[in-house]
Design goal:
The chain has about 280 residues and is an alpha+beta fold. It is built from 6 helices and 9 strands; from the N terminus they run ββββααββαβββααα. The protein is extended.
C-alpha cells in the first residue's frame, strides 16, 4: 500500500468529503546515476554554502524568500502550514465544468483520492453526481508549500485529482512564420479533403495499452548487451544513422497524401482477421 501524500477533505457547499491522496503515476525513465569517468565511482550532490564554500548538513538548511538582493526572510514548515490552515487541509471546489472545456496544456499530474473512514457514502455521492452530470470539479488546495489549481474527476469507481497550471504559468503561443493559408502555403480543397480522409482512416478509440515506451526497452537491451559482452566501462561511439531522415519539405503534397492512404489500406489488409463464429448445427 502506498503512503498517502496528502490528507484533508473535499469541500463544496456545506458538504465535506474526507479523503487521502495517492500518486497515480510513476516516472518511466531509466534510473541513471552520475559517474566519474576515471574510476566509475558515483558522483554525489553537495549542498555548498556559497559564502564559505563548505558543505552544509541538512540539519542546518532552512527555506527563505529573497525580498531584496542578498536579503532573505526565513520560513519554517509550521509557517507554511499555518499561512492558511483551511487551504492546507481542504480541496475547495469553486465550480463545476465539462472536462473538454479545459485546454490540454493546463493539465499536470494525476492523483487518486480515497475516502477516509466515515466518508465513504458522501465520496460515492460526489463520484456518482459527477459521472451523471458529465462534469468535473475545479478546485484549489495547498500541498508542499504551494497552492495548486486542480480538477476532481470520476474514473470508474474512484475519484481522481489532476493538478492544473495557473494561467500565468502558460506561455503565449509561439509566433510561427509561414503557417498561414496564403501564397505558396495555400491548401487546396482537394488536399484538405484527402487529409481529412486520412485522419478518418487512422481514427479510433484511445487505447493507452496499445502504446509502450519502446525507447526505454531499446536502451535496456543495450544495457544488457554491454553487461553480457563485459563492456560495462566502455563508452559507445556515435554511429551513422542507418537511413536518411525524411526531408522537411514535401514536394508533392497530394501524392504524399495518396501514398499515405495506400499504405494505411495495405496495413489493414495484412492485419489478421477474426474468424467468424461457426454456425450451430441444427
Amino acid at each position: 500500500m502506498q503512503r498517502s501524500l496528502w490528507h484533508g477533505a473535499i469541500s463544496f457547499g456545506l458538504i465535506y468529503v474526507p479523503v487521502d491522496m495517492y500518486s497515480a503515476a510513476k516516472d518511466g525513465g531509466l534510473a541513471l546515476h552520475l559517474l566519474d569517468s576515471r574510476d566509475f565511482a558515483p558522483v554525489g550532490y553537495q549542498r555548498i554554502n556559497k559564502t564559505t564554500g563548505k558543505e552544509v548538513d541538512w540539519a542546518h538548511i532552512v527555506k527563505g524568500y529573497e525580498y531584496q538582493k542578498g536579503q532573505y526572510v526565513a520560513l519554517s514548515d509550521a509557517e507554511f502550514r499555518h499561512a492558511n490552515v483551511k487551504a492546507t487541509e481542504t480541496i475547495e471546489i469553486a465550480t463545476f465544468t465539462a472536462a473538454a472545456e479545459i485546454p490540454a496544456m493546463y493539465f499536470e499530474t494525476p492523483y487518486y483520492l480515497a475516502p477516509k473512514k466515515g466518508g465513504e457514502k458522501v465520496y460515492s455521492l460526489l463520484r456518482q453526481a459527477l459521472q451523471s452530470s458529465g462534469k468535473v470539479a475545479v478546485a484549489t488546495f495547498v500541498m508542499r508549500g504551494r497552492q495548486h489549481l486542480c480538477v476532481v474527476a470520476p474514473n470508474a469507481d474512484v475519484l481522481m485529482l489532476l493538478t492544473l497550471r495557473f494561467t500565468q504559468e502558460i506561455l503565449p503561443p509561439v509566433k510561427v512564420k509561414g503557417a498561414g493559408n496564403s501564397g505558396k502555403n495555400s491548401v487546396t480543397g482537394a488536399e484538405l479533403a484527402m487529409a481529412k480522409k486520412l485522419i478518418g482512416e487512422m481514427s479510433g478509440a484511445f487505447d493507452p495499452s496499445a502504446f509502450e515506451d519502446t525507447y526505454r526497452a531499446d536502451l535496456m537491451r543495450r544495457v544488457q548487451e554491454k553487461i553480457r559482452k563485459k563492456e560495462t566501462h566502455s563508452l559507445g561511439a556515435e554511429t551513422t544513422a542507418e537511413a536518411e531522415r525524411p526531408k522537411a519539405q514535401v514536394i508533392d503534397l497530394m501524392e504524399a497524401l495518396k501514398n499515405s492512404l495506400k499504405k494505411k489500406a495495405a496495413t489493414q489488409r495484412q492485419a489478421p482477421k477474426k474468424l467468424p463464429k461457426a454456425k450451430r448445427r441444427a
